[in-house]
């Protein structure tokens, strides 16, 4: 009896061990002695079942691959074809310049040198601000481009902090200014300064086209050529007295830190109701100061309510924002005769310190002051 039991156990054991290495504990042995591996287990580059002793690494859209029968590229590939799979751990060993699950995304150069953030291509913001752009490409969302291409959520780049530039954000930016020897378009007329126009549109409310009451507040944001962003104190929308309204706007902009705007003039006119029930206020801002010579980024109107805990605290305006091409609530209506160059085009920037080294005969932060007349 004991001998018979031993024979039966031996037969059972031989049946169970028919699959190689008993599928290594990572699969089921089928009746044809072939392992059916659990998810993410297999053997070799082809991921054949074998004895299920090796791991399969994550798949992602391939950076480069061969086309399929329909001629399409960028199929799913192990480690996105930018890394080697460690079959013991099931993790991708990415090549230089790639990282993440399945090596799906690029790294950023020098980790942005500690002076910027690493962003996906579809999340990168406008180079200055959205008011500087116009066209058909962002009608759906006036503040963001639509990016549907294959490298979405894969390709990344640096978005530098203020005062820093270059592809890896490693260089300090130097002041910009006009070239003092640059010849204007027409020397027979007075110097032209950049003029930006803000047009406030208000929707019809209850059949009324009246402007909002004079207790409402908003703010303006200015972005310098060095990518510094400054927002004014709350500005009262006091259009019942346009002189006070103009003065408040001018004072708010001139009081921005570091005298980033050192000279402006402001003018405002009140529009009339139109056939579709809108009232508008036109505000022209002329940049006249030495620090804002030449073209400047367009201002941004902060019109959303920002209450407790917000800076600045504003009640907001019930505006209709008209960004769709070709209309905008912020436009340049006159370009400047003056230009804006790094170190005024009369010096070299020391990208370590962010200071201009002016050529002989020039001085000033942006080298736009003559010391010698020839």
Q: Which strand order spans the largest sheet, edge to edge or round the barrel? A: 20-21-16-23
Q: What is the gyration radius calculated from CA atoms? A: 32 Å
**N- to C-terminal distance:** 121 Å
Low-pLDDT parts are: 9-16, 135-142, 323-327
Compressed to H and E, one letter per element, the order equals HEEEEEEEEEEEEEEEEEEEHEEEEEEEEE
Q: Percentage of helical residues?
A: under 10%
* Estimated share of beta-strand residues: 25-35%
Structural class: mainly beta
Main β-sheet: number of strands, strand sense, barrel status? 4 strands, antiparallel
Oligomer: single chain
User: What sort of overall outline do the alpha carbons produce when their principal axes are compared?
Assistant: elongated
Mean pLDDT: 84
Question: Could you characterize the architecture of this molecule?
Answer:
The protein has 374 residues and is mainly β. Among the domains are: 60-99, no CATH class; 108-172, no CATH class; 195-334, no CATH class. The protein is 7% helix and 27% strand. The protein has 2 helices and 28 strands. It has helices spanning 2-16, 242-254, and strands at 27-29, 35-37, 41-42, 54-55, 59-61, 76-78, 83-86, 91-94, 98-99, 105-106, 116-120, 156-160, 164-165, 171-172, 176-177, 195-202, 217-223, 229-231, 235-236, 264-270, 279-287, 300-302, 330-334, 341-342, 347-350, 355-358, 362-363, 369-370. It has a 4-stranded antiparallel sheet with strand order 20-21-16-23, with helices on one face. Strands 17, 18, 19 and 22 form a 4-stranded antiparallel sheet that branches. 27% of the residues are buried.
């Amino acid at each position: 009896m004991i001998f018979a039991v031993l024979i039966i156990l031996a037969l059972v054991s031989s049946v169970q061990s028919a699959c190689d290495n008993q599928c290594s504990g990572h699969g089921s042995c089928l009746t044809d002695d072939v392992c059916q591996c659990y998810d993410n287990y297999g053997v070799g580059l082809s991921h054949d079942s074998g004895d299920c002793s090796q791991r399969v690494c994550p798949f992602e859209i391939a950076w480069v691959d061969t086309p399929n029968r329909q001629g399409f590229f960028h199929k799913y590939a192990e480690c996105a074809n930018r890394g080697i799979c460690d079959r013991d751990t099931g993790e991708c060993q990415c090549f230089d310049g790639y990282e993440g699950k399945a090596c799906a995304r690029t790294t950023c150069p020098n980790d942005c040198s500690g002076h910027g953030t690493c962003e996906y291509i579809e999340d990168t913001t406008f180079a200055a601000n959205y008011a500087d752009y116009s066209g058909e490409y962002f009608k759906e969302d006036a503040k963001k481009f639509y990016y549907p291409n294959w490298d979405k959520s894969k390709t990344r780049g640096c978005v530098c902090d203020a005062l820093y530039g270059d592809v890896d954000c490693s260089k300090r930016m130097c002041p910009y200014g006009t070239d003092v020897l640059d010849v204007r378009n027409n020397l027979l007329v007075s110097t032209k300064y950049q003029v930006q126009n803000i047009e406030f549109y208000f929707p019809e409310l209850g059949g009324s086209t009246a402007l909002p009451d004079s207790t409402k507040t908003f703010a303006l944001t200015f972005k310098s050529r060095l990518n510094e962003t400054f927002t004014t104190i709350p500005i009262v929308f006091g259009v019942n007295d346009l002189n006070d309204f103009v003065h408040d706007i001018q004072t708010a902009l001139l009081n921005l830190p570091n005298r980033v705007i050192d000279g402006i003039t402001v003018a405002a006119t009140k529009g009339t109701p139109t056939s579709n029930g809108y009232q508008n206020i036109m505000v022209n801002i002329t940049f006249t100061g030495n620090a804002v010579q030449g073209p400047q980024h367009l201002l941004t109107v902060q019109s959303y309510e920002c209450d407790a805990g917000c800076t600045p605290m504003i009640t907001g305006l019930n505006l209709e924002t008209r960004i769709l091409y070709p209309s905008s609530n912020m436009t340049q209506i006159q370009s400047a005769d003056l230009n804006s160059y790094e170190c005024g085009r009369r010096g070299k920037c020391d990208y370590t310190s962010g200071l201009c080294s002016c050529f002989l005969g020039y001085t000033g932060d942006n080298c736009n002051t003559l010391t010698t007349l020839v």
